[in-house]
Design brief:
By secondary structure, the protein is of the alpha/beta class. The protein has a single domain, classed as Aldolase class I (TIM Barrel, Alpha-Beta Barrel), CATH 3.20.20.70. The protein is built from eleven helices and twelve strands. The strands form two sheets. Strands 1, 2, 3, 4, 5, 8, 9, 10, 11 and 12 form a ten-stranded mixed β-sheet that branches. Helix 2 packs across helix 3, helix 3 runs parallel beside helix 4 and helix 8 packs parallel to helix 10. The longest helix is centred in the middle third of the chain and has 18 residues. Bound molecules: ligand PBG.
Length: 327
């Protein structure tokens, strides 16, 4: 093995052209997904204090935003809903006239080429803010798994009928991918892929999102269904299980705190992998940049590049619209 002074790694960093020549990872706008939040009303845009630049949008505004997103070169959006009403069993999630359903139908009609990914979960729609149904068990309230699957599959079917191109369950109940697959197949949507939030850690980095959706759990936390950030092997089991149940794409979140998991999934499984740069990761970069601590554009591009280097194919990011053109 040769070594210094024969070996000088800096030779390949001398100027922009040579750095471009040897660069291993390139992020392309085709890889990006932009999340949007749909709320009731008309001509409504409500800013989210902890996510500067992101707003809750009424369906008509969501359509306008999607035009801007498509114009920026982003080809996919991920939709979440702030419903008109919430109850214990998430009824508003599967209504034909639900906010996300309205937005899906309007966007599909006006911008048919834009890929619409519908998030499927209960927490947007439950008054208690949990991702599953509550079962009272003496002093304790439990999040009941199997009855939740019925509701999830109903929401998934409703999103499919409204025009979703991909169904993305984010609840972390056991068996949801299989249940949703069965429902979609039975309802004539055999062709719709499932992008499963396979590895979703119980994370501090979802804080701003819960403000955006007003979906924080009213009691307890999500640790009985979302994963412990301390666990790696469990991530492999979750991913394998979702694939066995029929997931087409696996997602890992949060993104930057899961680079090891992305790399491991990339080496073990031959399906597309998505990384979700979540609301807290967005806020961390945004606020640091606003205070002059870091440069926003280069920080965003750096995170996207390392996520891809770790193994992600698809990047879900609130920065997608603003930085697609920088790639
Ligand atoms: C809800 C859901 C959450 C996110 C996506 N789907 C929040 C949570 O689990 O509390 C987080 C996204 C983000 O923080 O950007 N099931």
């Amino acid at each position: 093995m040769a070594h210094f002074p024969t070996v000088r790694p800096r030779r390949l960093r001398e100027n922009p052209a040579i750095r471009d020549l040897v660069r291993e990872i390139r992020v392309h706008p085709d890889n990006l997904v932009m999340p949007i939040f749909v709320r009731p009303g008309k001509k409504e845009r409500r800013a989210i204090a902890t996510m500067p630049g992101i707003a809750q949008l009424s369906p008509d505004e969501a359509l306008r935003e999607c035009e801007a997103i498509a114009k920026a070169g982003v080809k996919s959006v991920l939709l979440f809903g702030i419903p008109e009403g919430k109850d214990a069993v998430a009824s508003w999630g599967s209504r034909e006239d639900g906010v996300v359903q309205q937005a899906l139908t309007a966007i599909k009609k006006e911008i048919p080429e834009l890929l619409l990914i519908a998030d499927v979960c209960l927490c947007d729609y439950t008054d208690h803010g949990h991702c599953g149904l509550i079962q009272e068990a003496g002093e304790r309230s439990l999040i009941e798994n199997d009855s939740t699957l019925e509701i999830l599959s109903k929401i998934a079917g409703s999103m499919a009928r409204a025009g979703a191109d991909i169904i993305a369950p984010s609840d972390m109940m056991d068996g949801r991918v299989q249940k949703i697959r069965d429902e979609l197949d039975a309802a004539g949507f055999k062709h719709l892929p499932i992008l499963s939030y396979a590895v979703k850690y119980a994370s501090s980095f979802y804080g701003p999102f819960r403000e955006a959706l007003d979906s924080a759990p009213k009691f307890g936390d999500r640790k009985s269904y979302q994963m412990d950030p301390a666990n790696f092997h469990e991530a492999l089991r979750e991913a394998r299980q979702d694939l066995e149940e029929g997931a087409d794409v696996l997602m890992v979140k949060p993104a930057l705190t899961s680079l090891d998991v992305l790399r491991a999934l990339r080496e073990r499984f031959d399906v597309p992998l998505a990384a979700y740069q979540v609301s807290g990761e967005y806020a961390a970069i945004k606020f640091a940049a606003q205070h002059g601590a870091i440069d926003e554009a280069s920080a965003v591009l750096e995170t996207w590049t390392v996520l891809k280097r770790a193994g992600a194919d698809i990047l879900i990011s609130y920065f997608a619209k603003d930085y697609a053109s920088h790639l």
